[in-house]
Task: structure prediction
Amino acid sequence: MTALNKYETAVKDYEPVLGLETHVELGTNTKMFCGCTTVFGAEPNTQTCPVCLGLPGALPVANKTAIESTILIGLALNCRIAEWTRFARKNYFYPDMPKNFQTSQYEEPLCEDGYVEVSVDGKPYRVEIERVHLEEDTGKSLHVGGSTGRIHGATESLLDYNRAGIPLVEIVTKPVPGAGALAPEVARAYVTELRDILRSLNVSDVRMEQGSMRCDVNLSLNKPGEEWGTRTETKNVNSLRSVERSVRYEIRRQSALLDKGEKIHQETRHFQEATGETSPGRSKETATDYRYFPEPDLAVMEPSREWVESLRERLPELPSKRRARLQEEWGLSEKEMDSVNNAGALDLIGATVSAGAAPQSAVKWWLGELSRRANEAGLELDAMSVTPAQVAELQGMVDEGRLNDKLARQVIDGVLAGEGGPAEVASARGLEVVSDTGALEKAVDEAIAANAEVAEKIRGGAHQAAGVLIGQVMKATKGQADAKAVRELIIAKLS
Result:
């Protein structure tokens, strides 16, 4: 079993340095260098041709839409757009690489020197972007016959080349020091912001669970004042939550090794979703291992300044500006908006408000009860089986006095269990607030009769003692009474 330090101890003794490499499949209709379609989920090896299979004599042609999408990404990330760039061959052997090289960019990326600004716990962080370059995705290896889905223990491997050649953008940050104990949260906030930017540009569906957005997490530790340590690279992390967990785990693991005087090996590692741990992959190659050289079958690209500026005019309202606008419209504090954004709840809350709920009510449900349940289930908020329209309907029933918060939480149980919408669940489970005045009066009279001393205190003006009677009435009505109405009834009867 891998020895781990306590997280608090690790970040007290060591300074983490982050680096994040994010791969994004572009949502083009055809592949990067050929006309094959890019529909997700097709039968294996039905979306291939001589070009994306690397057959002799097949010549690539660059996808203009993919180049435009990459320039849009660079502009949104405050990058400088190159006036001259070209593709290169990145040589390495792996079964899911049909050509035994990947057409990528190396010394001349399309976009360089940008930044993304995020906020965690009210503190701003600028994550600097080193490069944004365009390449093609690889195929997919399926290891079967084992229990883990990985090559170790598998009895055979199958190859699907449908994904080979899909346009892939790689966004590489510069090292991010100074995050300290908040490094996991900063990593998650950056990937969240990046995902939101890409979604706003409509260049990718950024579905991490389908692999259209994948993150490699680099991390090293050093003692304060010392040089940066040796980094590891946790590959293909496929959820926001897992980005945060992988950083936290590597900090604990690496600090334990360093405390024992052991060295950190520069290697790739795999993240295990079930346990939150990382495991060794392979030793990490350097650029020279890939023997880059210019792609002889593709021309140099020289994006004109007029073209770049015409694309800049197509930029939509970016997430940071949208948040500032919504923060003002919704009347939230900066800290509240940070919480909304870092929880990945902005679009959910926006849709809930559009469906009729007040902003504060929408924030309350998504950052409170629903966020708690998502954490318990190990899910992202947007993966919960409740819709913004249903949350708005639930709050509407609370506003109408048909539900109180306690009953509403029970209604959520039914909605998440697939029993229907809020009104349907409340009706089927008999959860609506008791509105029968006669039934309420009977319950209040019984509570007063059973608690004569308390009733006498209330008659004497000690209205705060009404809480005892309210509790009795709520118990008698199985929580389905309106506490405010019950209190008013008690005071009226004993005044």
Summary: The chain has a mean pLDDT of 89.
